[in-house]
Amino acid sequence: MDLVTPSIGLIVWHTIIFIILMFFLSKFAWNPIIKFIDQREEKIKISIEKADQVKKELKHVEDQKNKILKETHVKRDMILKEAIQIKEKIKSKAKEEGMIEKKKIIEETKKNIQIEKKVAIRQLKNKIGDISIQIAEKILKKELDQYDKQDKFIKELVDKLS
C-alpha cells in the first residue's frame, strides 16, 4: 500500500518543484507563449477582417457588374429599337420613292403613248390622204380620158364656182 499512498515529503517536494517550475515558466516561457498566442489571435482577427472586407468588396463589385449589365441591356434595347425605327423609316421612304418613281414612269409612258398615238394618227392621215389622192387621180384619169368628158367636167366646175 505504500506505493499507492504518497508520503508527505514526496508531496512537499512535488509541490515545491511544481511552484519553481511554474515560476520559471511564468518568468521565461509564459510571456513568449502568450505573446505568440496573442500575435496569432491578432493575425486571425486581421485575416477575418480582410476576408469580410474582400467579401464586401466582392459584393460591391457584383452589384456594380449587375448594374452595368442592366444598363447594357437597356442600351442594347434602345439601340435595337432605334435600328428598327430607322429600318422602318428607310423602308417607308424607299416605298414612297418607289411609288413616286412608278407614277413618274407611268406618266412618262402615257405621254409617250399619246405622242406616238398622235404621230401614228398623223402618219395614218397622211397615208390615207396620199392613197385618196392616188385613188382620185386614177379615177380622174379613167373618167377624163376622153376629151369630151374633160370639157364637161371643167364646165361643171366653173359653173359651181361662179
Automatic annotation (TrEMBL):
Show the SUPFAM superfamilies listed in the entry: F1F0 ATP synthase subunit B, membrane domain
Instruction: Give the CC-aspect GO terms.
Output: endomembrane system; plasma membrane; proton-transporting ATP synthase complex
Q: Mind telling me which InterPro entries this protein's record contains?
A: ATP_synth_B-like_membr_sf (IPR028987), ATP_synth_b/b'su_bac/chlpt (IPR002146), ATP_synth_F0_bsu_bac (IPR005864), ATP_synthase_B_chain (IPR050059)
Q: How does it sit in the membrane?
A: Single-pass membrane protein
The record's section on CDD domains has:
ATP-synt_Fo_b
Keywords annotated in UniProt: ATP synthesis, Cell membrane, CF(0), Coiled coil, Hydrogen ion transport, Hydrolase, Ion transport, Membrane, Transmembrane, Transmembrane helix, Transport
Gene Ontology MF: a single term: hydrolase activity
State where it is primarily located.
Answer: membrane
Any transmembrane segments, and where?
12-30
Pfam families recorded: ATP-synt_B (PF00430)
Regions annotated as coiled coil: 37-71
Query: Where found, per UniProt?
Result: Cell membrane; Endomembrane system
**What is the purpose of this protein?**
F(1)F(0) ATP synthase produces ATP from ADP in the presence of a proton or sodium gradient. F-type ATPases consist of two structural domains, F(1) containing the extramembraneous catalytic core and F(0) containing the membrane proton channel, linked together by a central stalk and a peripheral stalk. During catalysis, ATP synthesis in the catalytic domain of F(1) is coupled via a rotary mechanism of the central stalk subunits to proton translocation.
> Oligomeric state and partners?
F-type ATPases have 2 components, F(1) - the catalytic core - and F(0) - the membrane proton channel. F(1) has five subunits: alpha(3), beta(3), gamma(1), delta(1), epsilon(1). F(0) has four main subunits: a(1), b(2) and c(10-14). The alpha and beta chains form an alternating ring which encloses part of the gamma chain. F(1) is attached to F(0) by a central stalk formed by the gamma and epsilon chains, while a peripheral stalk is formed by the delta and b chains.
Family according to the record: Belongs to the ATPase B chain family.
Name this protein carries in UniProt: ATP synthase subunit b
Gene behind the chain: atpF
